[in-house]
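Protocol step 4 of 5: obtain the predicted structure for the target chain.
Materials: sequence only (see below). No template structures provided, no constraints applied. The aim of this step is simply to have a reference model before the mutagenesis design in step 5. Sequence pasted as it appears in the construct record:
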Amino acid sequence: DEFLEQDSNVHVKTNMMAILMVAAQKQFWQADEKTLQQLGQAWVDLLLEHGLPGSGHTQPDHPVFEWVKPYLRPDQVEPLKQLLDRARVDAKVAPSPSTLSELQPADQEKRADAAKESSSAAAESGRTGLMVIVAFVALLLSAGYQRGRSGSRAV
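Step 4 output (structure tokens):
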């Protein structure tokens, strides 16, 4: 238990507790009322102290939060509601742009065209250099092959 309460491990612990609460909510786990009350209160204490860890079971709109309310202490209900309200994000508030484009004055367009031409000339020069290197390597391999064949006959 100490390990799971250190540093960011506490978020692992809250996720594990959330999974237990969801399992009980869906009746996959048949826990008694006292266990659910202890677990629910401990879980919400960790959430209030460290915040929501961000897994699917702790998203602010998850139905487990409504289900767990009867197991909480009265002093936990309102702070949990406030925590969940702060964590909710309204997608309509921050619309994202559909497209982005960069505007350039006319003289910058000419510079951009010149830069494209020079980069294409550099690419052509690079291709020519590569072809020279490939031809040289082929010549070396061929000469080595010929020398090896002639050397093996002399032995």
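Step 4 remarks: Residues 43 and 49 are 10 Å apart (CA to CA). The chain has five helices and no strands.
Proceed to step 5.
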